[in-house]
Amino acid sequence: MINIAIDGPAGAGKSTIARTLAADLGYIYVDTGALYRAVGVNAMRRGADAKNAEQVTATLPSADVSLRFVDGEQRVYLGEEDVSLAIRTPEASMAASNVSAIPAVRDFLLDLQRSIAAGNNCIMDGRDIGTVILPNAQVKIFLTASVEVRAKRRYDELLGKGMQADYETVLDEMIRRDEQDMNRAIAPLRQAPDAVAVDTSEMDLEQVLNTIKRIVKEKQ
């Protein structure tokens, strides 16, 4: 199977790029960040402190997380509830960053992610796909952009979904998220040695897609 790993910081456009690229190539798209967000939302709903490993670990048996494809679009479920929108709030984003630093959570989701990759041509995006989850992926991309550009994109995304948002607040949360993701003890955000860096700060969607398609073609 052909596996493409796309890593990078929050707001770099990983999900949009990976989803569009998967559709173009006919691959399965796996949004691993959505899985962590779902675990984080489940923990918050059950009154757990997302930074408390013991409390979060206690909620894992109730975290019935799954990815389903509805009308060609990936949706995220907790049990039978579609939480695809609920996991996109700023609170869910910080919770995802917190719970992703907990070893038990990473172990909980590791087998699910690898089993999907083993049985499908897939594109998987996250923070540690090329370094930890799929270290043998045939293609590895490290997608990034300036923090100001990433914050503006996330701000526009929230507004587009009808949510209230303040740019300065989103920027501050983005900076804190970067710091947390890069300095966590377990699987910190970093570029794999064999990954190709793509800075999207000055690129539109088509330019990014063309760049990555060229990289994929060269690696095959």
Description:
There is one protein chain. It is built from 9 helices and 8 strands. It is α/β, with parallel strands linked by helices and 220 residues long. The chain has one domain (3-219): P-loop containing nucleotide triphosphate hydrolases (Rossmann fold, 3-Layer(aba) Sandwich), CATH 3.40.50. The termini are close together. The model has no long low-confidence stretch (mean pLDDT 92).
| Strand neighbour order, sheet with most strands | 2-6-1-7-8
Known CATH architecture: 3-Layer(aba) Sandwich
Low-confidence stretches: none
Question: End-to-end span in angstroms?
Answer: 12 Å
Biggest pleated-sheet summary: 5 strands, parallel
Structural class: alpha/beta
Q: What's the number of extended β-strand segments?
A: 8
CATH class: Alpha Beta
Here the CATH topology equals Rossmann fold
What is the helix content?
40-55%
Give the helices and strands as they follow along the chain. EHEHHEEEHHEHEHHEH
Number of helices: 9
Short overview:
The protein is α/β, with parallel strands linked by helices and 220 residues long.
